[in-house]
Amino acid sequence: MVKTDGLMTARRIAHGRRSWRTWLSLAALALACCTGCEEDPFLASVAGHDFGDMDPSLCAAMGDSITIGYGDAGAPWPARLSAMLGSRVDNYGVGGMTSDGGVAMVDGVLSTRPGFVMIYYGANDAIHGRSADSLKNSLAEMVNRVTAANAIALVANLTPMTDGHGAFASAVDAMNVAISDLCNETDTPLVDLADEFGSGDGLLQPDGLHPNSDGQEAIAEVFYRHLRHAVQ
Description:
By secondary structure, this protein is an alpha/beta fold.
């Protein structure tokens, strides 16, 4: 009987130690999450966001040929992002699409109930001579509709245009200023692809517009940095 009591006592002590270690682990995780929120305003905003009927595990990518995929780039960035997140990312890219086309389709995208909508337009606006203000207005309309649906919008700026598309470089610069202004004015997360690409060296196909495989991977990585702790 003494031996049995001793065994039971030992088990209680061991269980207590395990419980204590578990509590410490949970406390450390909570502290890490809180610290992450303080360092990442986007993550902090998501933590208190009411998604309503939207699905916080579902993302939608809206854009043009860079989003749908072009040339020898391999898997487009939404598919790569989906693999990184381990979550579904629907690709609504359309080749040649301008931002006004995005406005026309955003309600259809929202009908699928994504919690996060990634908006990436402007290259074709620049190529077709649309103004930076026109792009800004279209993006603002999309952001407003996404926000009204209780989803969260993220807006990307433009990667560089070089070589055969180098004539549009100044238009890209103007578009990126407008995109930055929009994000500041609407408190929308800016996905800074321009900073990631720099001059575009080694990340673009020979046409100087469409990302190659490394470029598509880079785009996915930048979106992933925003969404990795936000998608539920």
